[in-house]
User: Fold this.
Amino acid sequence: QVQLVESGGGLVQAGGSLRLSCVASGHTFSTLTIAWFRQAPPKERERVAVSGWSGQTTIYTDSVKGRFTTSRDNDKNTVYLQMNSLKPEDTAVYYCAAAPSSWITTTDYRYWGQGTQVTVSS
Assistant:
């Protein structure tokens, strides 16, 4: 029922910035908790950041704290991941995922986007 589409990935030099967008449809957007995950094999997929329906946010990945922020615009059905001071180790496929929960602590991510590749060159 929920469709998520990520965009904004690409190739960037170390120290640069990217802003990823996740547009949701098929659900009342404001009731969704939306998280950003990233996957860079052979590493396990990790949850990077979460945004709650009322705008509360949490960054889970220590290495991106102070560099990444997430925010949402409920009027546009869109969640953003602003990535600054990018490092080569940030290279990964970034996914947004949605949970039909009002609790930012939820782990019930049922809906996933296709992912967008972020590549950071040194």
Observations:
- The CA atoms of residues 69 and 121 lie 21 Å apart.
